[in-house]
Design brief:
Number of domains: 2
Number of helices: 8
Oligomer: single chain
Number of strands: 4
Largest sheet: 4 strands, mixed
Shape: elongated
Radius of gyration: 21 Å
Strand order of the largest sheet: 2-1-3-4
Mean pLDDT: 90
Strand content: 5-15%
Order of helices and strands: HHHHHHEHEEEH
Length: 186
Amino acid sequence: MTLSAIAARYAEALADVVTAADSAVRPQDALAQLQSFDAALRASAELQNALTSPAVPASRKKAALARIGETLGLSRIVRNFLFVLIDHRRIAGLAEITQLFEKTLDERLGFARAEVVAARELSEAQRAALTSELERLAGKRIRLRTSVDPALIGGVVARIGSTVYDGSVRGRLHALQRRLTAESYS
């Protein structure tokens, strides 16, 4: 079994627990807690070494994790999930598990992910308008992720799954160039 398949199983298992009707933690809170712990883990090479080293006993890893969990305000469910990762020596895969967990939650809660590249940083009003339009096009609620690429000149390029919506100036110029080239040969 590949590491991605293993990470997907852990992500699915945690999603099963936090989306259950009687869950003590909301799915979004569990995701935020995992992301917070993952950020802390990536920020400290010392912590990474301690939690991934086979030379450090699991009991010491769990004690360190418990102290950090208190500081970060981790719920019992998330803390226990991290303990399971420690027990099965999978804590090194936390970043991938967290990404897959987020994707799984989005699917289960009816969200589509939209990766948007804009020529410049979008204002909140622009983000809201873009989200609304993408929701209309996709027929689903949208989780918007944005990045900036000044090479676009202006506008945005949005990707939802395998569908690309190119509203950039660069894209329009390329389309115009293709049309003009095609017309000159007709």
